[in-house]
């Protein structure tokens, strides 16, 4: 039985197709648009990171030197005043009220608080160590949230707490934002994130990134 092979005229030379050219060029456009979106997103996160860093840095500087905003001149840390005594000593609600009162003005509390503000602020501004920064910042925000205790409608003396929201206050927003910045590696744009990630110790210990 003979098998006849029929030549396929379409298997040889093909004339160029405008439809194929348009289809082939579409992915290039999509890639360009996608790259532009990624770049805009990276810079948006980087801008949020720098602003968040300035929040912590300013708090440190104002409490240290007393620029006359939240901390009056002469009441700064360098003047011998305690950066935690006023805040923790005035806690008037929540299950940790007495604990915060015992911490107020303690030397270890002052140093931990101020070093935390400085370290978190510098790390966010520079875009380095965002993962440990997010952890430290979340712990700090959680403690400050408990000190203000937004769920309370009344303070321990019976007066209205004037809480604007029983749960989602700015401490929670800051904590979530720091976690998001760490997850998206927001230090790569407008920061030193790539250089930091390239350090041998950071490559060996990814949690430092």
Structural commentary:
With about 210 residues, the protein is an all-alpha fold. About 60% of the residues lie in helices and about 0% in strands. It contains eight helices and no strands. The protein starts with 17 loop residues before the first helix and ends in a 5-residue tail after the last helix. It is globular, with a radius of gyration of 28 Å. Helix 1 crosses helix 6, helix 4 (about 105-125) packs across helix 5 and helix 5 runs antiparallel to helix 6 (about 170-185).
Features:
globular; 209 residues
Q: Portion of residues in helices?
A: 55-70%
Strand content: under 5%
SSE pattern, N- to C-terminal: HHHHHHHH
What's the gyration radius in Å?
28 Å
What's the number of helices?
8
Output mean pLDDT: 89
Largest sheet: none
Q: Which regions are unreliable across 5 or more consecutive residues at pLDDT < 50?
A: 1-26
- How many beta-strand segments? 0
């Amino acid at each position: 039985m003979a098998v006849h092979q029929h030549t396929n005229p379409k298997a040889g030379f093909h004339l160029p197709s405008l439809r194929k050219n348009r289809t082939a060029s579409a992915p290039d456009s999509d890639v360009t648009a996608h790259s532009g979106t990624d770049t805009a997103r990276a810079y948006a996160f980087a801008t949020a990171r720098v602003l968040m860093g300035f929040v912590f840095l300013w708090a440190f500087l104002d409490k240290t030197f007393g620029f006359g905003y939240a901390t009056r001149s002469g009441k700064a840390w360098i003047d011998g005043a305690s950066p935690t005594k006023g805040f923790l000593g005035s806690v008037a609600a929540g299950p940790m009220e007495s604990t915060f009162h015992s911490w107020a003005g303690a030397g270890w509390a002052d140093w931990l608080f101020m070093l935390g503000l400085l370290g978190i602020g510098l790390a966010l501004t520079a875009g380095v160590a965002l993962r440990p920064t997010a952890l430290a910042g979340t712990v700090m925000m959680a403690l400050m949230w408990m000190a203000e205790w937004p769920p309370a409608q009344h303070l321990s003396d019976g007066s209205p707490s004037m809480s604007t929201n029983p749960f989602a206050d700015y401490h929670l927003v800051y904590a979530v934002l720091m976690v998001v910045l760490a997850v998206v590696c927001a230090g790569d744009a407008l920061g030193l994130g790539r250089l930091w990630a390239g350090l041998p110790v950071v490559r060996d210990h990814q949690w430092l990134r």
